[in-house]
């Protein structure tokens, strides 16, 4: 039995979506974030880093979103429902699968961290300085970088139904979390194609079942 060690408001929601798309049986073991927004120490009993997502499948323990998605698709997606076989689409899917965590998420997380430098747990005496520093870094570097990425994503989706073309793929599942992060922390008003893609995602029955299983996402303050 596949067990998803599920942290609320985390990347592990993507794993639930994949499992629902493939109609695979699974069990959820739930973990709640602490006041610091970090995962509880009990998650370290599953994997030394104590991060989500992580799954167990028999004796196997697998962490990292991309690795989990690829493992589940290779082992259980016999009909290639989420793995395009066309060479060009396959390369597109692989690119976006790795882009999500390698290029986009670091900026999304950095923006969150610097936006909180004027808030607890920063000592109150340092909050004004922290807020000023954080705002400076965001406006001078992070927001400019994110604007480039927003344009890149929007231009890509303007000519495709899904990230790898006409077929839903692992790329869409992987990209769902950072795009929801962008939507939660800045909106998608200037990204109509991306908003249309997100609307399609959230209308999918498998997505809705995954949300019912894992809980609603609030990405305004999570970074795991």
From TrEMBL:
<feature type="domain" description="GST C-terminal">
    <location>
        <begin position="86"/>
        <end position="224"/>
    </location>
</feature>
<keyword id="KW-0560">Oxidoreductase</keyword>
<keyword id="KW-0808">Transferase</keyword>
<dbReference type="Pfam" id="PF00043">
    <property type="entry name" value="GST_C"/>
</dbReference>
<dbReference type="GO" id="GO:0004601">
    <property type="term" value="F:peroxidase activity"/>
</dbReference>
<dbReference type="GO" id="GO:0004364">
    <property type="term" value="F:glutathione transferase activity"/>
</dbReference>
<dbReference type="Pfam" id="PF02798">
    <property type="entry name" value="GST_N"/>
</dbReference>
<dbReference type="InterPro" id="IPR004046">
    <property type="entry name" value="GST_C"/>
</dbReference>
<dbReference type="InterPro" id="IPR036282">
    <property type="entry name" value="Glutathione-S-Trfase_C_sf"/>
</dbReference>
<protein>
    <recommendedName>
        <fullName>glutathione transferase</fullName>
        <ecNumber>2.5.1.18</ecNumber>
    </recommendedName>
</protein>
<dbReference type="GO" id="GO:0005737">
    <property type="term" value="C:cytoplasm"/>
</dbReference>
<dbReference type="InterPro" id="IPR040079">
    <property type="entry name" value="Glutathione_S-Trfase"/>
</dbReference>
<dbReference type="InterPro" id="IPR010987">
    <property type="entry name" value="Glutathione-S-Trfase_C-like"/>
</dbReference>
<dbReference type="InterPro" id="IPR004045">
    <property type="entry name" value="Glutathione_S-Trfase_N"/>
</dbReference>
<comment type="similarity">
    <text>Belongs to the GST superfamily.</text>
</comment>
<feature type="domain" description="GST N-terminal">
    <location>
        <begin position="1"/>
        <end position="80"/>
    </location>
</feature>
<dbReference type="InterPro" id="IPR036249">
    <property type="entry name" value="Thioredoxin-like_sf"/>
</dbReference>
């Amino acid at each position: 039995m596949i067990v998803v060690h599920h942290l609320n408001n985390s990347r592990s929601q993507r794993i639930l979506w994949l499992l629902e798309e493939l109609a695979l049986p699974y069990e959820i073991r739930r973990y709640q974030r602490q006041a610091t927004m970090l995962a509880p120490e009990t998650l370290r009993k599953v994997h030394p880093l104590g991060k989500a997502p992580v799954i167990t499948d028999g004796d196997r323990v697998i962490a990292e979103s991309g690795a989990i998605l690829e493992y589940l698709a290779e082992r259980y997606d016999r009909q290639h429902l989420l793995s395009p076989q066309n060479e060009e689409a396959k390369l597109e899917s692989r690119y976006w699968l790795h882009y999500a965590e390698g290029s986009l998420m670091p900026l999304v997380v950095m923006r969150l961290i610097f936006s909180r430098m004027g808030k607890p747990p920063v000592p109150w005496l340092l909050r004004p300085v922290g807020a000023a520093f954080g705002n400076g870094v965001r406006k001078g570097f992070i927001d400019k970088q994110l604007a480039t990425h927003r344009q890149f994503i929007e231009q890509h989706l303007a000519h495709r139904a899904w990230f790898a073309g006409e077929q839903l793929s692992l790329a869409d599942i992987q990209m769902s979390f950072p795009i929801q992060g962008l939507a939660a922390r800045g909106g998608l008003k200037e990204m109509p194609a991306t908003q249309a893609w997100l609307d399609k995602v959230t209308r999918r029955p498998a997505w809705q079942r995954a949300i019912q299983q894992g809980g609603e996402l609030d990405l305004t303050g999570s970074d795991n």
